[in-house]
Design goal:
About 45% of the residues lie in helices and about 15% in strands. The protein contains 16 helices and 14 strands. Helix 13 links the parallel strand 12 and strand 13. The longest helix has 21 residues. The model has no long low-confidence stretch (mean pLDDT about 95).
């Protein structure tokens, strides 16, 4: 059995390599424990565009994993990462084509960086390797490796949604991008909708349908233990004391326009308008760490949320009660697990999401004798397998308001029954089964 070679835009920082914090690192933790592995990608560092810069590869081994990283120049970071990956592909894949700001030079930089990744990875490969490439930053990397003569099995997994052809065709060079993906032996996506959209796109450009569904999960046993064990943590106790026995609503999302945060705040505002009996008697904590803060759309989103939180708190707040507790900095994962366990309601209402693991983490964290209620967007990738949640259309503020009232007044018997229906799927589809199933499919491609 050869090595598993993982390629992603970002490689875990040295401080996170023993205790992973990022989503991909956490999901891959179990799969990477077995055998020898190589993880290749960007270090997260930028360097100046000096003459002769050759993207030196920095290699470091921790336990059984060799981490190989390269730095990007400022121009590469701007064109490849900021403008094309996050300014073009991210909004397009989240059905927001109107937010694209396309310039051909950024597409050229994106392609050039993918080709540079291929050149730098090539000398590190060994006979028998299986290559697993992750996410939208690296769509063309498989073809770039094939162009260099790499014959190893190459798989690709897309962690975010994939749009229908009617939207995808808005991308200049969409035909070329989709055709380049024929270089992959296995292509994985999160949901049946994503697979159908991608395969329809392949059909439109005369390519073979290759997308298959490999839903991602969490490590529920570990997360449940973390949630229960952390209740004694002093900061968790501080939060519990501050609630003073009030029902607790939680939302945890990266600050991004795909997460439906303005719509969620509006739903909570309508909830306070329509159900005045809850005023002063409920606590809503929204954790929304700022990301991509130098991108205009994200700055505008933060200003919109700041204004909405101020308006709601100004309108409904009392001298001893703040309707929304709103944080724009991250909270450690260890604390969040116990915060979820304390929460009576979780608001998970993205406008569009690949999977959304917060929904699964919330279910895993619950006390099955007294579980909370999950309110979930119909447009989250997790929705088809979590039908026992209270499903809402995130664009409908009244529906969010009604769901909040129903969740906060739901008897324990119904809450337990809903959790009993949610629990099996969270434990059935895990991070380990996701990685195992994909790697097995890639192994079969090798045999074929």
């Amino acid at each position: 059995m050869g090595r598993l070679v993982v390629v992603s835009n970002r490689v875990p920082a040295p401080r996170d390599r023993l205790q992973p914090a990022g989503g991909l690192a956490v999901a891959l933790r179990s799969a990477l424990k077995e055998g020898s592995c190589l993880w290749f990608g960007w270090s997260g560092q930028q360097v100046s565009e000096k003459v002769g810069h050759d993207h030196a590869v920095n290699v470091d081994t921790v336990e059984n994993i060799t981490y190989a990283t390269i730095d990007l120049t400022h121009a590469e970071y701007d064109g490849f990462y900021q403008k094309y990956s996050n300014g073009i592909l991210w909004p397009l894949c989240h059905y927001r084509a109107g937010l694209m700001d396309y310039e051909r030079k950024d597409q050229i930089i994106y392609q050039n960086v993918n080709e540079m990744f291929a050149r730098k990875l090539l000398p590190l490969l060994q006979p028998g390797d299986q290559i697993w490439i992750h996410d939208y930053h690296l769509f063309p990397l498989g073809q770039a490796l094939r162009d260099l003569g790499v014959a190893a099995p190459i798989g690709f997994f897309l962690h975010i949604p994939f749009p229908p052809w009617s939207l995808m065709r808005a991308l200049p060079e969409a035909h070329s991008l989709l055709r380049s993906m024929q270089a992959y032996d296995v292509i994985g996506v999160q949901t049946e909708d994503d697979a159908r959209n991608m395969n329809d796109g392949f059909s439109m450009v005369g390519a073979t349908a290759k997308a298959e569904v490999f839903p991602i999960g969490i490590d529920p046993d570990s997360f449940a233990k973390q949630a229960a064990d952390g209740l004694a943590n002093l900061e968790v106790q501080r939060l519990k004391e501050s609630l003073r026995g009030k029902p607790f609503i939680i939302g945890v999302d990266r600050l991004d326009y795909s997460k439906g945060l303005p719509e969620r705040f509006r739903g909570y505002e309508v909830f306070l308008e329509r159900y005045p009996e809850h005023r002063g008697k409920v606590v809503y904590l929204q954790v929304a760490p700022v990301s991509r803060g130098n991108v205009p759309e994200y700055r505008a989103l933060r200003q919109e949320l700041d204004a909405a939180a101020g308006r709601i708190n100004g309108t409904y707040g009392e001298f001893d009660w703040t309707p929304i507790r709103y944080l724009t900095h991250s909270v450690p994962r260890t604390l969040l697990a116990s915060f979820y366990r304390l929460a009576d309601v979780a608001l998970v209402t993205p406008l569009r999401d690949g999977m959304n693991l917060v929904a699964k983490e919330y279910v895993a964290a619950q006390d099955k004798a007294d579980p909370g209620v999950l309110i979930l967007s119909r447009f989250a990738g997790a929705a088809p397998d979590m039908e026992a949640a209270l499903m809402v259309n995130p664009h409908d503020a009244d529906e969010i308001a009604d769901a909040l009232h129903k969740a906060l007044t739901m008897p324990n018997g119904e809450r337990q029954a809903r959790w009993d229906h949610l629990e099996p799927d969270v434990w059935r589809v895990t991070a380990l089964t996701w990685a195992r199933d994909f790697i097995q499919a890639l192994g079969k491609a090798r045999s074929a």
